[in-house]
Amino acid sequence: MIPPIEIESARPQDLDSIQALLGEHGLPIDGMLDQIPTTVVARTAGRVVGSAGLELYPDGALLRSIVVAPQMQRQGVGHRLIEAAIAIAITRRVPAIYLLTITTEEYFAKFGFTRVDRAAVPDMVKGSAEFKGARSSSAAVMRKTLQRDPRREPRLVFLQGSRTIELFWTEALAAFRQQVEAESTKQH
Ligand SMILES: CC(C)(COP(=O)(O)OP(=O)(O)OC[C@H]1O[C@@H](n2cnc3c(N)ncnc32)[C@H](O)[C@@H]1OP(=O)(O)O)[C@@H](O)C(=O)NCCC(=O)NCCS
Prior knowledge:
Helix content is 36%, strand content 23%. It is of the alpha+beta class. It has a 7-stranded mixed beta sheet with strand order 1-2-3-4-5-7-6, sandwiched between helices. A hairpin with a 2-residue loop joins strand 2 and strand 3. The longest helix is centred in the last third of the chain and has 26 residues. The protein is elongated, with a radius of gyration of 23 Å. About 3% of the residues have low confidence.
């Protein structure tokens, strides 16, 4: 039986295997250790056969270190890794994901990434090791903008201006009054 390929969060002990895969494909390895908590790996029979890393910045995320072992390619592993990384970015509420690519522009277009000018990249993402790396200038920059689901937006009542706080208390007081009135009507 062929062992299944699982997509899961990377562990610190996966670092060597991820770096070996990246090295085999000439992809940068700088800063990978810090990104382990937001990296996903493809694992089969206990072996790492693929990875996708996400560097999170307040103004955007950088998708990097996407690699699948040659013998495992064209089986949808890359697709599953990228979808998992996109899901992490959505959960972390970043506005957009950026990436640099030299040979895989067409592949990433399938996930909704489009080519953008470097000027469109937020400064923090541009400050990443990958953007500052030697091969960066010859790579295309791609972006996928993420849609926010308003139902999953955090309630920022206490973090916003005083007018909002005032509105919150006015509404809370009105609801409380209504409840008291309803209770007293029931009693009479
Ligand atoms: C790019 C990569 C991660 C794709 O992984 P994968 O598991 O083989 O991809 P999937 O199985 O999800 O998708 C395979 C499809 O993508 C296509 N594809 C793969 N590489 C491609 C590329 N460079 N350009 C366009 N399409 C590509 C395949 O032709 C295949 O298409 P098909 O389904 O019509 O046959 C893998 O080829 C790889 O590790 N490449 C070397 C490292 C690399 O270039 N990483 C990207 C750095 S930005």
